[in-house]
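Lab notebook, bench 4. Still working through the backlog of constructs that have no structural model yet. Next entry is a single chain of 566 residues. Request: give me the structure tokens for it.
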Amino acid sequence: MYAYPYSIDPSGYHGHIVSGKTGAVAVEAEECSNTGIEILKQGGNAVDAAIASGLCIGVIDSFATGIGGGGFMLIRSPNGTYEHIDFRETAPAAAHKDMFVENPELAKYGGLAVGIPGEIRGYELAHQRHGKLPWSVLFEPAIRISRDGFKCTPLLEQRLKKAEPWLMDMPEWREIFAPEGHLAKAGDLIRRPNLATTLETIAIEGADAFYKASNMRKWMHFHVINHIMIQGEIAHYLVNATRAAGGIMTLQDMASYKPQIRPVVSTYYHGRKVVSCSTPTSGPLIIAALNILERFNLRLNGYTGLDLHRIIETLKHGFSFRTEFGDPDYISNDGRIQEIMSKEWASRIRQNISDDTTYPPLYYHPRYDHVESHGTMHLSVVDGDDGAVALTSTVNLLFGARFMDPVTGVILNDEMDDFSIPGKPNAFGLYPSEYNYVAPGKRPLSSITPVIVESDGKFELAVGGSGGSLIPSATLNVILNVIDFEQDLYSAVNAPRYHHQLLPNLAVMEPGFNHILEQDLTRRGHEIFHLNTSQRISAVQAVMRLPDQSVHGVSDPRKLGIAAAY
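Model written out:
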């Protein structure tokens, strides 16, 4: 079944749209949205703001993201060119496809679950190619809030309660999140001084301080000079902590990590250019879905039961396609991916969508079983020159691999859980995807789908979501709400959402849909899974340039966020 990470009661909380004339930043925490705006005001661009905001949210929402994880960045330069930076975590060199067959839980918790972190190298590459402000300036807000402290948010309080059964047994976690003997609550001050030292070291010494071991020293006691860790010590501490927890990561794995510049994928939807990231993200799913939906002309009749049925059928086909995705450096199916994203393929798929009924999963021809993914953080930025960034970063499950290096303060990811594990077929006879088996240096398939939309060649929208396998449908929901149903940005983000990932064969719906729409779906054979009032489908962060050149920003109230603009 599904894991719904956004199970916080939003009663009494109402997000809102923010507007400005120049730039906007939408992050899950208001403090980090404001961080991005301050960077823009200092003369930074969208990439600078995204990096600073990403570092900030990694301190506050450490249950979902941080420098111990990785992700993807979609960048639009002011001249309209695009770049996709893949800083997804990779499998260690000693990894192999059968390593979790005997005990799949080891892919979730502990040292063996850890992929090589990519976030700092990804930020470094983005900054080298696009940044304007000095590297160290981008770290200052995150260093400050780590050292001086930040107020525990209601969202963090809820996540800490979920983690309490294991967190309170670990002294390094208690020291940060329960210094008084009980878990922090909303409004309590949380400090992460060791992480502040780590961030300050990277700010001054550069990304090599995180990844490369010193030639002068091997493992030694913690040594800090004026809050700066000796270069090369960070990698030693992370590797030793991981191996002590049963992992196989090495210093060579850390030193060898490289982010990738990959192609973007795009299509035109009702005249607008829609751009996303190529595999191993799920960007091609969004492109394929929009191509299928375009000829249905959803805007013609407004929001009807037939429209919703067609969208859900499109998602079922899209998640079927997704079972063929994986790390493009390890599989040779680019021709197939290009076919799936073509208008011709969309035309053939539309012919298989009946307006009268839905079908069992095998009708959609999935090649493999679906792999579930989790967690994440998304942020969106636009600057005064219409440079824009859609960035998604993750440590995967709640607090990643559930262990923190006590010296550096870094919480490590459990991204190995996003690989497929060889095994028996599911109830439909579908085997796990060989395209997504573990291999040395390989990146696991991701549900992440950053999107940027242009209208008449000009920036219009940057959008993306968090929430694992729920991300593609949530992102699609918002795009359709803006383009087809002409909703303002807050309404588009706040509107109730639907989700279908083919396996399991359930149409998942948030509260708020009228009963006639649901009856129309049931009449067509859909089995509906109703979320309760405390469950939500993903959390979306979006920024938009309007025709009058003003900007709007919205952080999803599902994750209690507030955007910022100026």
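Notes after review: The domain at 261-373+446-565 is CATH 3.60.20.40 (Glutamine Phosphoribosylpyrophosphate, subunit 1, domain 1). The first strand starts at residue 18 and ends at 20. Flag for follow-up if needed.
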